[in-house]
Each structure stands twice: as C-alpha cells, then as structure tokens.
C-alpha cells in the first residue's frame, strides 16, 4: 500500500520534500497557507496595476556559486518550453558598493584573469582599510578556514562576528567595510551574529569568486514565481502530488508517541488531515506555535527552536518610467542607516515590462531593507515604526543620497510610476508588523536547531531552521532540509529508492592538512595556532599601552 505523506508548508523546503517523495512513489499532499507556493521566494501580482499586473516580491532572489542543492532541483524542473528552470539563471557581472561620502567601488564578481586581479580579490576592501587591519582580517579568515569542525561548532559558534573580528578596537573603515555588511547578508547586527556561520558563508562567497568552474552569482531572468515556482508546482503535481493553497496548519495532534492528524484552516473552514507521515515545513515562528508541551516532551530535540531568533529583512520595489541599470549586478549602500541593498532587474529579465500594468513601466528597482531598528534620515524613526508611505520616502531618500552625487542625478521623483511594499508587512497604529521574519544565526543557535528526524517516529522537519550543512537561512538551506526530511521518510519507510543527494560545503583542499593539525590541537585543549599568535600580540600590545 502506498504511504501517504502530508507536507505542511509549501515553501522551498516543503516543495523539495514533496518533489523528492512523489517521484519515489509516495502519495503526497502539500498544504500551503498562502495563495501561492514558494514562501518568501515567491513573486506576487501587484494589486490594481492592470492586466497583466506588475510583479512584486518579498525581496529579490540571488543564487551564489556555492548553491548546489537548489540548483540541482531546478535542473530537474521543466519550464514548459523544452528547457529547465535552471536555464533561466543568468550571471551578474559586478557589485556596486556605494557611499554617500568617499568613492564608490565596483567589484567584479567574475573569476579573476590576471595575478593582480587575484590579489585584489583577496585583499579586503581595496585601500579603504588600514593595511595592518586588513592583514588582521585576512588572518581571521584564514583561522576560520583552517579550524577543525569541532572547534567551529564548540567555540566559533559561541563568539559574535563583531568580537571575532575585534571590531571595537578597529577603524571606522574596517567596521564599515568588513564587519557591518553582515547586516545585508544575514539581516542581523554583527554584534549578535555567530562567527561560525558568517565566516563560513563569507568564505564560500570568496571561494566562489576564485573558482572558474562556477558562476559567482546568478539571478533569474524573470519574476520568481513565473520562471521557477509555478513550473515547479506544476511539475510536482505531474508526479502525482496534490498542492492545496490557502490551507494554514493550526494544530498537530499527538496520540501516544505518533502524530495522529493535523488541523488545517481553509479561510475559516477547518479540516482534520490524516496521513502516515507528516513533514513539518512551516517557518520557525509558526512551528513554535504548533509545538505543544506534550509534543516537546515527546520530541526533546524540538524544544530548542523556541530559542531561535528572527529578524526583519523585507523588500520594496520601485517601478520606473525608464530603466536605471546603475550596475550589472547588486548594489550595497553602506552609509544607509537601514542597510539597503538593491538590484535593477529589467536588464536581466527576458520580458517586456511595458506589456504589464498601464504600459508606462520600463524598469524595476528592487530594494531590501535589512535594518528595521535604526532611525531613518527623513522622519528619525526606525523602519518598523514608519507607515508604508514613510518607508517608501525614507528608502528613496537613502538611495538618492548614495546615487545622486557630483552633479549626476540618477534617480528623481518623476521616474517613479508606482511602488510596492512586501505584503507580509501589515500596517498598525504603531507602524508595521512583519508576518514573515527571517531566521537569523545568532551566537549559540546551532545547538537549538533540530534534526530532520526528531523523536516522534512519523514527524519530520523541513525548514531553513533545521540542522543542515548550509546553515545560513536561505533557499539553499531550505532545499537541503527538504532533502534531509525526504531521506528520513525513506529510511523509516524501509524504502529501497535512491536517497536524495546532500552536499557538504566545499572548501579549498589546500587547508585540509592545517585542519587536521587543528583537530589534534583541539583534542589536546590547545587554541588554534593563529589564535595563539594573536593572544601573544595582544598581551604585548597591552604591556606597551
């Protein structure tokens, strides 16, 4: 008899689990709370902008070179035109690091061609950081790359990125260029971020730039749901799965040591769902509400998710009368109090925006706000205390302050046809509330993250908060978590089907001998060799101070 699997959540993790299990013969039903699959990755039609409408989104998507799980999945999804959705990935060329004062920097993201270019990639932040501090930063990155895994898990996960890089004693340029950009990467302050997580991801991004076999950074050639997520849903359904949207899970029913059912809300109508196995693929803040005291007792490994933290990282799109490419890639606005990043999308999209809305739009500037707690420049309030209209004005003002310089006006108000704020932000009397926060990797979070197979025999965890090799909350981690949950289902069901492939993060093999040396030192209770040298230098500095 075919086993029935209820996948509770239709984001990237849930769709991955459904994809892998349905193609292996399981009877799968996906229950997604929203009207569209894909979770935070989805794009949405902007209400009131015509037919077809303009595309909006939670935030722009990008696919760095170290993504392997999600790319492999995309390579197995037909796009309906004889290709796969992976064929809709296009490379960026460079990143703009914009300042209000000081020089802008355009960094190539392709593989270096000359020896000089290789050294320029490794040297941090060009000439904006004092040489001694740049050398210290490089030492710290090498310490990360040469630390054994046990040291990373036991020591580096308990240290903030700020303290690991000793930011308090460094220059403003060091902090602005090398420490604080984590705000745009993982949506949290470097004073809270785990050095293990941030350092590993930075290393992956750097290695990706230096590896000629991979594209350093890619984006989709159209709105995400149109070129990826909707074809994915259709493919999963073609494999025999059912996908039900507008179906929010509200309760997990525990009977003995097993899940006996789940309650799903269809816009006020409740349904009791039963299956042989249940894959929980909802966001972490939703999962916390579903974990009753009885369920936490039955599955102690799930109790820790109450301690996982989230932050805000939401987007706004500006629809422009003229396309303003700025740079053929992403833009980082380092002097913006709200930690803005952006990309001008029309230059990459294989669609004509003039055929959407009222025909006036030729460009889309998609912006992500990563710091919602710092006061803005216009109203002096944090983003979360602003109205949607105030958020729009603040973001536009901060963009203009960076891009309209030296007599050149790239952005002006007359360009804006319309704008769209992430619909997960609800206006309240005090500003906005966020219905879709992002999991963040704070110090010590690793020990609270659950495995794919907790102690309840027919319950499985798929979400970017599960324990994965990828670690960072991302589409890649979600895809990996979906694969791990599918593999756990296959194991428990005694299936003979091939298991889903799971990759380790790839690091340069040149560091393996040094990692082996550090494994010995860690077992002996000794510090990392680089840390020992730093401690000696610090002691000498204190003596001479």
List the domain count as a whole number. 3
What is the fold-level CATH name, i.e. the topology of the largest domain? D-Amino Acid Oxidase, Chain A, domain 2
**CATH architecture annotation of the largest domain:** 2-Layer Sandwich
Number of strands: 24
The poorly predicted ranges are none
Shape: globular
* Average of per-residue pLDDT values: 91
Number of helices: 16
Radius of gyration in whole Å, from Cα?
24 Å
Secondary structure class reads: alpha+beta
Helix content: 25-40%
CATH class of the largest domain: Alpha Beta
The major beta sheet can be summarized as:
7 strands, mixed
Portion in beta strands: 15-25%
| C-alpha termini separation | 76 Å
Strand order of the largest sheet: 8-7-17-18-19-16-20
How would you describe this structure to a colleague?
- The chain contains 16 helices and 24 strands.
- The chain has 545 residues and is α+β, with helices and mostly antiparallel strands.
- It has three domains: 1-35 and 245-309 and 445-507, FAD/NAD(P)-binding domain, CATH 3.50.50; 44-65 and 90-109 and 216-221 and 313-436, D-Amino Acid Oxidase, Chain A, domain 2 (2-Layer Sandwich), CATH 3.30.9; 111-214 and 521-544, no CATH class.
- The strands form seven sheets. Strands 8-7-17-18-19-16-20 form a seven-stranded mixed sheet, covered by helices on one side. Strands 10-2-1-14-24 form a five-stranded parallel sheet. Strands 5-9-6 form a three-stranded antiparallel sheet.
- A hairpin with a 2-residue loop joins strand 21 (425-428) and strand 22 (431-434).
- Helix 1 (12-22) packs parallel to helix 10 (224-238).
- 47% of the residues are buried.
């Amino acid at each position: 008899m075919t086993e029935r699997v209820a996948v509770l959540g239709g984001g990237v993790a849930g769709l991955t689990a459904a994809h892998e299990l349905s193609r292996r013969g399981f009877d799968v039903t996906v229950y997604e709370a929203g009207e569209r699959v894909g979770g935070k990755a989805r794009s949405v039609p902007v209400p009131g902008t015509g037919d077809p409408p303009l595309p909006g989104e939670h935030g722009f998507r990008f696919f760095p070179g170290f993504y392997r799980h999600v790319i492999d999945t995309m390579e197995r999804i037909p796009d309906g035109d004889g290709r796969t959705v992976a064929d809709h990935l296009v490379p960026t060329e460079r990143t703009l690091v914009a300042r209000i004062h000081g020089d802008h920097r355009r960094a190539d993201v392709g593989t270096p061609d000359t020896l000089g270019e290789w050294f320029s990639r490794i040297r941090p932040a060009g000439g904006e950081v004092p040489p001694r501090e740049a050398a210290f930063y490089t030492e710290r990155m090498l310490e990360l790359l040469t630390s054994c895994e046990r040291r990373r898990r036991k020591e580096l996960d308990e240290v903030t990125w700020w303290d690991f890089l000793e930011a308090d004693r460094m220059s403003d340029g060091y902090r602005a260029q090398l420490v604080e950009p984590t705000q745009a990467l993982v949506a949290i302050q470097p004073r809270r971020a785990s050095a293990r997580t941030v350092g590993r991801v930075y290393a992956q991004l750097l290695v990706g730039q230096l590896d000629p076999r991979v594209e350093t950074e890619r984006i989709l050639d159209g709105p995400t749901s149109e070129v990826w997520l909707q074809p994915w849903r259709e493919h999963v359904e073609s494999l025999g799965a059912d996908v039900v949207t507008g179906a929010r899970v509200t309760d997990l029913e525990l009977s003995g040591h097993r899940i006996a059912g789940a309650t799903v809300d269809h816009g006020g109508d409740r349904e009791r769902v039963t299956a042989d196995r249940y894959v929980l693929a909802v966001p972490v803040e939703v999962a916390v509400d579903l974990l009753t005291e009885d369920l936490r007792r039955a599955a102690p490994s799930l109790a820790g998710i109450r301690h996982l933290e989230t932050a805000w990282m939401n987007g706004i799109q500006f629809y422009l009368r003229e396309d303003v490419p700025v740079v053929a890639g992403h833009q980082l606005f380092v002097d913006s109090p709200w930690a803005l990043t952006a990309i001008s999308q029309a230059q990459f999209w294989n669609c004509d925006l003039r055929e959407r809305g009222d025909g006036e739009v030729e460009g889309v500037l998609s912006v992500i706000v990563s710091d919602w707690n710092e006061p803005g420049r216009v109203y002096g309030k944090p983003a979360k205390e602003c109205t949607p209209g105030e958020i729009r004005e603040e973001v536009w003002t901060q963009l203009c302050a960076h891009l309209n310089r030296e007599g050149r006006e790239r952005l002006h108000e007359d360009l804006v046809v319309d704008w769209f704020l992430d619909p997960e932000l609800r206006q309240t009397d005090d500003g906005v509330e966020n219905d879709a926060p992002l999991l963040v990797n704070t110090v010590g979070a690793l020990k609270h993250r659950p495995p794919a197979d907790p102690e309840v025999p027919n319950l499985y965890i798929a979400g970017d908060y599960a324990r994965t090799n990828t670690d960072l909350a991302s589409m890649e981690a979600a895809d990996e978590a979906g694969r791990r949950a599918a593999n756990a289902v296959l194991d428990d069901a005694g299936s003979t089907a091939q298991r889903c492939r799971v990759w380790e993060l790839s690091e340069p093999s040149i560091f393996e001998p040094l990692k082996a040396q550090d494994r010995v030192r860690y077992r002996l209770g000794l510090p990392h060799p680089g840390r020992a040298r730093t401690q000696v230098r610090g002691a000498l500095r204190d003596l001479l101070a």
